[in-house]
Amino acid sequence: MKLSTKHLLGIRDLTKEDIQIILDTATQFKEVLQRPVKKVPSLRDVTIVNLFFENSTRTRISFELAEKRLSADTISFTASNSSVKKGETLLDTVNNILSMKVDMVVMRHSATGAPHFLSKHIPAAIVNAGDGINEHPTQGLLDALSMREKFGTLEGLRVAIIGDIMHSRVAMSNMYLLKKMGAEVMLAGPPTLIPKYTAEAFGVKVEYNVKKALEWADVANVLRIQLERQNQVLFSSLREYNQVYGISRSLLESLGKDITIMHPGPINRGVELDSDVADSGQSIILQQVENGVAVRMAVLYLLAGRDSN
Ligand code: CP
């Protein structure tokens, strides 16, 4: 089985079958990751460079680990200690790296569309590790794998995406993926953080009352308030945000039903999510992180042209 695309730039470009293949391949790699020897030789002759122009903990470690588990040769680059600081352009940086015979590029960048730009100018396969406020496709895929493991299917699942939708590439990738896979999606949070066009463009519901959204949902994917991307005041204070839109233990207990809590990380504890919820049995946040390695192994393996059979 092969993907319909040479790059992973966004979930928007994937077919339902592509998503199914990636999730099924990730499930096979998850089995490998339970073994005493967690390494397979699948990408032994493949060289991958990780280009991180923006901060990351989970995604970067997860890609590096996935590459090592597949026996790829890897190089990691951070913009903060590179010649980008001397004024080198993105294309020059990448072309210099590629001249050292690199097969695949994993890239995170604060500019929306940066990986799409690269894909038009270089021959290597590109994996988007998060571009601006556009997409974070491997996060969407690992979220999907985590929900599929918990509920057996995404078809008909009710997922509330709660919080800072406006600045969230995670929300975008989740919306594309969940709609393609037949889930129902509701966006919830302050009106100032939910763009007006979203409901119609994606065919999703919008609810400004978080309690009502939780009453409707099987899963709440709670998003980080991205203060670093906000250049105007979109809510009164973090304290007020927590009181009105934050997910607390007392709010969950008032629902009278179980709900699964997800968060892509990093968490603003005490803002969008209280610690006694984040660390509770209802939370699958660390399973999401664990699934990230298997999902990234699957993506790299499939894009390298190693089919899943
Ligand atoms: N979820 C996520 O992308 O986390 P990092 O920014 O730490 O990679």
Fold topology:
Layout: H1 16-33, E1 47-52, H2 58-69, E2 73-78, H3 90-98, E3 104-109, H4 114-121, E4 125-131, H5 137-151, E5 158-162, H6 169-180, E6 184-188, H7 198-202, E7 205-207, H8 210-216, E8 219-222, H9 238-245, H10 249-253, E9 260-262, H11 275-278, H12 285-303
Parallel strand pairs: 1-2, 1-3, 3-4, 5-6, 5-8, 6-7, 8-9
Residues 56-60, 130, 136, 139, 264-266 line the site of phosphoric acid mono(formamide)ester.
If you had to describe this structure to a student in words, what would you say it looks like?
This protein is α/β, with parallel strands linked by helices and 309 residues long. It has two domains: 11-135 and 289-303, 3-Layer(aba) Sandwich (Rossmann fold); 137-284, Rossmann fold. It contains twelve helices and nine strands. The chain has helices spanning 16-33, 58-69, 90-98, 114-121, 137-151, 169-180, 198-202, 210-216, 238-245, 249-253, 275-278, 285-303; strands at 47-52, 73-78, 104-109, 125-131, 158-162, 184-188, 205-207, 219-222, 260-262. It has a five-stranded parallel beta sheet with strand order 7-6-5-8-9, with helices on both faces. The mean pLDDT is 94. Residues 56-60, 130, 136, 139, 264-266 line the site of phosphoric acid mono(formamide)ester.
